[in-house]
């Protein structure tokens, strides 16, 4: 019975020891708040293609799960750009109460409507859902996110109106709703109702490529604003251009093209002295041409396809020193063309077809060194005067922007000028009609820029891989398309321009030199510069998931800034191919610490258990000795002088009793008991 108690006590101590070790291990390694862990587990159950590390444990912060960032036990950032996620964004996201950054960009498989529970993320500072497949309306609850500074919902399929509640986002500086199917007017505050006019810290209003309608409210703009980009192109706005735009002295890019705006251009737009790009093309504007003489920083201006009053060339044609591109096609300009226009040092393109310029075209004695294109088709030019100093070729590229075969004219002219056209002018219908000015000859267009692979000796790769310009090895690059909404140049033949972009990309994205490839730059129908981008891993064939998430975030969050020459941009990534068996993950340092500490506690418990077992054994032996009071005198020694030990009750035979009592001698008697004599 004593032995049984010993085993029970030992087992109990062992269980306590293991429980203690497990508790210590859990306290150290399982650090994620249970609410956050449950929310992330629920999201994982609704998404396909989550990273392999997801679900490896119930501890997203301690293990950790890829794309999850924590502060102590709470999840503070979720970055899953370009992971190939498929599914819906459910209301479980609202349980991540400490979330400050949510980036799910470039996951086309994320579809369905946005949950209103995004409004529960009260500490959210960055929300990037660009390049996904979300539909439905933008939830009003996004207006609850008072700490939000960056909101990118562009390139989805959102419909409905812009929520007036977004006017509550008083800390937002980036608001991008472009390339959706939004309709209705721009909301303006009224009484207790908010509106976008309250966003005084905003620098970017990107609403282009939607179906927004109504007038552009004058109240939307004020002198308190610090906007630098107002992109409203490609909508259905009507009415006049609000004069309040002229109050925003910080404005650098103003695009109102491809709408149905009417009325006159406000005179006070001339106050926008920081303007770099002004595009008012493809509207129904009337009245006199605006005076842009004070816009000394302007690189690009397009006033084409409007209904301005007939007039001669405005003075500012010859007074804007930073001008690179002048576009005023399908207009009502008339009279001679000032030859000073062609002498601007940075001028690259002059596109004035379908006007009424007349008289003699004279390019003057000085043609700007960057001038590439002069397009004067369908005017009323009767003659051309060229200086005898021109020594190179004058040619027209009919499909310059489409990167296909070209039609070219040859005539001696200065080296820089490479493209010109005069068809449809009287000079081409007179006796001079056989001159080279009016004859179209087939020539191959200049090769549009692509990053050189000359050092790779024509190496070929499987269809799903590409040659790295750095290592000349086949690899899986991170690919996508860069869209520059307002570049300061239109010359696509200058390789130095692309070299600066390549260097900027690998330096600012933390890649190795030469790991960037640019392909096929061209201006698309929206007049955006479009470039195919490929980024190659520094080693091996693949980027790991952490690197893909980082690059995707840097490009979607505008952390990466291109050279100023390229202006505002956005990026849409292609799906990335991850290796099927290369997604193993190692234990975190916190996990290792937990394992070491738990094992140490277990060893201490085992040592304590051993000591306890030895002590219990000694006690058991003592208890057994006390339970056996008689031992053989022969074994103990009669003359030993020691007291007999109690070893427990036992039976003695008659012969043993006779021997012990010395044949029942009287000298062995001790006294009398209830059953007779007692002796030893």
Helical residues, percent: 10-25%
* Number of helices, where a helix is a run of at least 4 consecutive DSSP H or I residues: 7
Proportion in β-strands: 15-25%
Global outline: elongated
What does the radius of gyration come to? 43 Å
The pLDDT mean sits at 82
Largest sheet: 15 strands, mixed
Distance between the termini: 31 Å
Protein name: non-specific serine/threonine protein kinase
EC number: 2.7.11.1
Pfam family, one: LRRNT_2
Subcellular location: Membrane
List keywords for this structure.
680 residues, alpha/beta, Leucine-rich repeat, LRR (right-handed beta-alpha superhelix), 15-stranded mixed β-sheet, five-stranded mixed β-sheet, 7 helices, 22% strand, membrane, transmembrane, protein kinase activity, ATP binding, leucine-rich repeat
